[in-house]
Design a protein that fits this description.
Layout lengths: L1 H13 L5 E5 L7 H11 L8 E5 L3 H8 L7 E4 L2 E4 L8 H15 L5 H12 L23 H21 L2 H11 L5
Parallel strand pairs: 2-4
Antiparallel strand pairs: 1-2, 3-4
Helix pairs in contact: 4-5, 5-6
Protein name: Peptidase MA-like domain-containing protein
């Protein structure tokens, strides 16, 4: 029922002329489980900040507004969440949680692969998946990847960060990556 409320708000905001603008926060219905995982992972309360969500009416509009490739379902620019049309997104609540997690983790200054791995832990995106990993993920420039390579990148980030968290605390990751400039453990 909670997910239905957030989805209804998104659908209502999309009906009409071109893209729709709505807002979201970690405290909206449907995001409780994701917020709980974020708070458990970081040991901090999720922000109550309300963020703008722009839901595009078409893939072309999404690309024009967000500056992201056509194959990306959602993304964040300057704390604004951009989403493809809801008809293309099989789980818009998870997509919103994914982008809210990116916003939450950016304050720590992690290299992008660590941020993506943490985000995927919060949203449980790769649970049970088995995808060929990318080598040297630390040197990969994600903006240069195609859809299939980015899937491998995201999976590899999730897997590597999950392994790091088995041996280190979140606080240790924050300290290490802020001091090392993004190196390897």
């Amino acid at each position: 029922m909670k997910k239905v409320f957030v989805l209804v708000v998104l659908v209502i905001s999309v009906v009409g002329l071109g893209y729709r603008v709505t807002t979201v926060s970690w405290y909206d219905n449907g995001l409780e489980d994701y917020r709980y995982r974020l708070e458990c992972l970081t040991g901090e309360k999720a922000t109550e900040t309300v963020y703008t969500v722009i839901v595009a009416d078409s893939t072309g509009e999404f690309c024009r507004l967000s500056g992201l490739p056509y194959w990306v379902l959602a993304g964040v620019r300057d704390d604004t969440i951009f989403m493809q049309p809801l008809s293309l997104n099989y789980d818009p609540i998870r997509s919103i949680a994914h982008e809210l997690s990116h916003i939450a983790f950016r304050k720590y200054g992690f290299p992008y692969w660590v941020e993506e791995g943490l985000v995927c832990i919060v949203t449980c995106e790769w649970m049970g998946a088995n995808i060929k990993e990318l080598a040297d993920i630390e040197t990969v420039e994600p903006s240069k990847l195609d859809f299939y390579s980015y899937q491998k990148y995201s999976f590899t980030a999730w897997k590597r960060v999950s392994l790091l968290l088995q041996e280190h605390t979140f606080e240790e990751l924050v300290k290490f990556f802020s001091e090392s400039g993004g190196g390897r453990f």
